[in-house]
UniProtKB/TrEMBL annotation:
Protein family per UniProt: Belongs to the homoserine dehydrogenase family.
Metabolic or biological pathway: Amino-acid biosynthesis; L-threonine biosynthesis; L-threonine from L-aspartate: step 3/5; Amino-acid biosynthesis; L-methionine biosynthesis via de novo pathway; L-homoserine from L-aspartate: step 3/3
Protein name in the entry: Homoserine dehydrogenase
Pfam family, one: NAD_binding_3
Reactions catalysed: L-homoserine + NADP(+) = L-aspartate 4-semialdehyde + NADPH + H(+)
Amino acid sequence: MSVPTPPRTIHIGLAGLGNVGAGVFKNLMQNGDLIRQRTGADIRVKRVVVRDLQRPRDVVVPEAMLSTQWQDLIADEEIQVVVELIGGTTTAYDLVCAALRAKKIVVTGNKALLAERGQELFALAEQCGVPIYFEAAVAGGIPIIQVLQEGLVGNRILSIHGIINGTCNYILTRMSQASLSYEDALREAQEKGYAEADPTLDVSGWDAAHKAIILASLSYGFWIPTPCVHVEGVDKIDIVDFKFAKRLGYTIKLLSVIRADEQGLVEVRTQPTLVPLSHVLANVSGSFNAVLVNGDIVGETLFYGRGAGQDPTSSSVISDLCEAAAVLVYGARHSGFVPHGLYGKSKPIEDTVSHYYLRLTVDDVPGVLAQVSTVLGQRNIGISSMIQPEDLEDTSGSTSLVLMLHDASLGDMLKALDALCSLACVRGKPSWMRVETLQG
């Protein structure tokens, strides 16, 4: 009978003890025995860097472990893995670069850092011969990074459709199900802890867009430039659009869409989108996330779970720590991002094509539809259906005109919108959204 090999101790340095950092510390202690049995490694936090030593925290950390200088993690030769959970793209970048140069494995949940500076960081990781792990950067506790890197490695990724921001999904769910205004739904999300005091990064769409850039870059083998990504937020959606969408058989979701065309040009966009009520993504509610991946071999696969929160996100960080431990105990892995030459160009966003939903407030007079149709026709945009619900008309001499439009490029659509705004019969700014023709 063989004697079990004693677990090897892996010392980690933890930068950031906020919500996720506290969860990592707590859950490593709670499930340490399980992790040792499964990995052959005893993963121990040796030092924790925080901004304020006096700030009350959810976990008790021995005072001797605390520091306010991230450089202490680099200087400590026993620390083999640095976990970056401080956020931002400046200090975090300096910390990650220093860790890589010191030959320390990096684990991060920083989607903004990777989306904006990932190309530089992964090149440095390759040069230094140490990996970066980043499962927690996208979709909280859903292991979507591992799926793309390992589970679907033999597939060409045809498309990804993702609801990957829990704050926006909660807001849109409440607007849809409880008929709340955007402002009231946001206030409720903040009260329940689903939205930050300053929700700009979430409601602008950029949090989801950063995650989409990471998923697209993994799927297509080159780092997607941020300027090539189309982003719109949820803060301009009116409750009336949910009513019209429902009549048409849709609901509204902040959807990230990633796909390559026949020429290998890759489009990446995040925007409020009409999704068919019959499709599974329409039923992803509250703060939950879902990622629908379509591979050429596997077909469609759906990954669903909580996209944020202390425990789900710390679960992903701990998964990466176990991967890092495997590298240290059993041997080398790749740097975390493997470029390849099958793709390599982003599709100009104005060339991306989809159906559209368009709501206009117009004068309630004859000839309006003819004027609108002419403007659209001049841009080769066809109308597939129209509704003009009498029960939503006001008494000010105007009415709502809701159109579902055939496939059109974004460039043509934007030109048409400018022309429509110049019509004397159109009041205010049009409300418009893309429509995804997903099969239920």
